[in-house]
Amino acid sequence: MPRKPRMYLPGMPCHVIQRGNNRDACFYAEQDYQFYLECLQDACRRYRVAVHAYVLMTNHVHLLMTPEDSEGISRVMQSVGRRYVQYINFEYQRSGTLWEGRHKASLVDAEAYLFTCMRYIELNPVRASMVPHPGEYRWSSYRTNGQSEPSQLVTPHALYLAMGQDSEQRQFAYRGLFEHQLDEADIHAIREAAQFCMPLGNDRFKQQIEAALGRSTGYAKRGRPGIREEDALYF
Question: What is the pTM for the complete model shown?
Answer without folding.
Answer: 0.91
